[in-house]
TrEMBL record:
<dbReference type="InterPro" id="IPR047657">
    <property type="entry name" value="PmbA"/>
</dbReference>
<dbReference type="InterPro" id="IPR045570">
    <property type="entry name" value="Metalloprtase-TldD/E_cen_dom"/>
</dbReference>
<dbReference type="InterPro" id="IPR036059">
    <property type="entry name" value="TldD/PmbA_sf"/>
</dbReference>
<protein>
    <recommendedName>
        <fullName>TldD/PmbA family protein</fullName>
    </recommendedName>
</protein>
<feature type="domain" description="Metalloprotease TldD/E C-terminal">
    <location>
        <begin position="231"/>
        <end position="447"/>
    </location>
</feature>
<dbReference type="GO" id="GO:0008237">
    <property type="term" value="F:metallopeptidase activity"/>
</dbReference>
<feature type="domain" description="Metalloprotease TldD/E N-terminal">
    <location>
        <begin position="26"/>
        <end position="90"/>
    </location>
</feature>
<dbReference type="Pfam" id="PF01523">
    <property type="entry name" value="PmbA_TldD_1st"/>
</dbReference>
<dbReference type="InterPro" id="IPR045569">
    <property type="entry name" value="Metalloprtase-TldD/E_C"/>
</dbReference>
<dbReference type="InterPro" id="IPR002510">
    <property type="entry name" value="Metalloprtase-TldD/E_N"/>
</dbReference>
<dbReference type="Pfam" id="PF19290">
    <property type="entry name" value="PmbA_TldD_2nd"/>
</dbReference>
<dbReference type="InterPro" id="IPR035068">
    <property type="entry name" value="TldD/PmbA_N"/>
</dbReference>
<dbReference type="GO" id="GO:0006508">
    <property type="term" value="P:proteolysis"/>
</dbReference>
<dbReference type="GO" id="GO:0005829">
    <property type="term" value="C:cytosol"/>
</dbReference>
<dbReference type="Pfam" id="PF19289">
    <property type="entry name" value="PmbA_TldD_3rd"/>
</dbReference>
<feature type="domain" description="Metalloprotease TldD/E central">
    <location>
        <begin position="120"/>
        <end position="224"/>
    </location>
</feature>
<comment type="similarity">
    <text>Belongs to the peptidase U62 family.</text>
</comment>
Length: 448
């Protein structure tokens, strides 16, 4: 894996070769990764995996025709052949009136914001094994746990560099660590499983192994002896570990590509109040140590914090350069890409900001409802917003969380769900998409 400086030079050199070979414009993306993971089960080592790799992708334009190629062979001969193949492919490709690099005057001019994404730590496989064993041991120590699906710990590092024929050449590195466990409670047909997992950019920010293990065990035991729930309309409360999926549906719906295709349930809703007053959903690519923090996007535009929803109103679309041209707009700095193909669109660290009511107060007036801790399936229609997913969690009775429930379906329409959503004040930054506890009244429950 190359250093950031060497990766920048390698990407810039590939772009230069593409222009010399006849391309009118080009960009190149280098990605290098190295990771180690250790898995244990029932106190014994199951696997130790080490992977290292690097790949470079080239996208070039001949007029409005383009081609994308990639290679894991970074030798001079391989890259020379890569350029020749890409130029030949582009000359035979159909024209795309929206194709092209990001506007030159929009490219990041500085070195960008330091997002503190790499701590430089390098835990050994022995250290990772110790963490995994401690995690599983703590989980299995919880009364009621009868088996384990295993525990794991991992560490990795990546180098990313992007260069364009307009003179942009920048890179950055990230580190990443994770730990988790999945365990089983009960026996026979009454068994239940659950898990706990945490990821962080800096090793010192990773939850202690014992804490992660205990949480996994406690969650599994709490799911024992689920009760049946009669079907009907009732309030649904989403735990923060699953509530972020609702914001994920919003992000998909405001993707400029979906708007251009007219396949979004939020089409023509720009500027409308789609959530209650006071609700803000913020995208912050500069959060120090954020899981998706980055100084520039996949086309070299500087990233910046922005409100996707402000005071309940939808502020606009997320766009790369091609989508922006198609919609007659400006790119928003949300381009994301791999080494192959054209950029797409992605948000970064997204928060639904906390409300003004505590979690207990959010539940207090619910006579009967569902507290959801797991969602199953992908039952969302992106065109209509119709929502139907399998779920499990707990029954809420008289404002208190009661027995477990399982094998239910929750349904509604995302437009109506967004309008009815009420956030608690318990936001924590633990994921790429973070939400507090969320309540939505009037959802349809299909139970027993």
């Amino acid at each position: 894996m190359l250093s950031v400086k060497d990766a920048e030079a390698r990407a810039a050199g590939l772009v230069e070769r593409a222009v010399q070979a006849g391309a009118d414009a080009a960009d190149a993306l280098y990605v290098g990764d190295a990771s180690t993971s250790v898995n244990v089960r029932l106190g014994a080592l199951e696997s130790v995996d080490r992977s290292e790799g690097e790949e470079i992708g080239l996208r070039l334009f001949v007029g409005r025709r383009s081609a994308s190629v990639s290679s894991s062979d970074l030798s001079d001969a391989a890259l020379g052949a890569l350029v020749e193949r890409a130029v030949a492919m582009a000359r035979e490709a159909p024209e795309d009136p929206y194709a092209g690099l990001a506007p030159r005057d929009r490219l990041m001019q500085s070195h960008g914001v330091d997002v503190d994404g790499d701590d430089g730590a390098d835990p050994s496989p022995a250290d990772l094994k110790t963490r995994a064993l401690e995690t599983e041991e703590a989980a299995r120590a919880v009364a009621g746990i009868t088996n384990s699906e295993g525990a794991g710990a991992s560490a990795g590092r990546s180098s990313i560099a992007l260069a364009t024929s307009d003179g942009f050449a920048r890179g950055y590195s990230t580190s990443g660590y994770s730990g988790g466990a999945s365990v089983v409670a009960g026996s026979g047909g009454a068994m239940q499983r659950d898990y706990a997992q945490h990821s962080a950019r800096h090793l010192e920010d990773l939850d202690p192994a014992e804490e992660t293990g205990r949480l996994a065990g406690t969650r599994a035991v709490a799911r024992l002896n689920p009760v049946r729930v009669p079907s009907g309309a009732m309030p649904v409360v989403f735990d923060p570990r699953v509530g972020g999926s609702l914001v994920g549906h919003l992000i998909s719906a405001i993707n400029g590509a979906a708007i251009a295709r007219r396949t979004s349930f939020l089409l023509d809703r720009e500027g409308d109040r789609i959530f209650a007053e006071g609700i803000t959903i913020r995208d912050d690519p500069h959060r120090p140590r954020g899981l998706r923090s980055k100084p520039f996007d996949g086309e070299g535009l500087p990233t910046r914090a922005s409100d996707l929803v402000a005071d309940g109103r939808l502020t606009g679309w997320l766009m790369d350069s091609a989508t922006a041209r198609q919609l007659g707009r400006e790119p928003t700095g949300h381009a994301a890409r791999g080494v192959g193909g054209s950029p797409g669109v992605s948000a970064t660290n997204v928060d639904l900001l906390p409300g003004r009511i505590g979690r207990d107060a959010l539940l207090a007036d619910i006579k009967r409802g569902i507290y959801v801790t797991e969602l199953i399936g992908q039952g969302v229609n992106p065109v209509t917003g119709d929502y139907s997913r399998g779920a499990s969690g707990f029954l809420i009775e008289d404002g208190a969380i009661g027995p477990a429930v399982a094998e239910i379906t929750i349904a509604g329409n995302l437009v109506e769900m967004f309008a009815a959503l009420v956030p608690a004040d318990d936001l924590e930054h633990r994921r790429a998409v973070n939400v507090p506890t969320l309540r939505i009244d009037g959802m349809t429950i299909a139970g027993a």
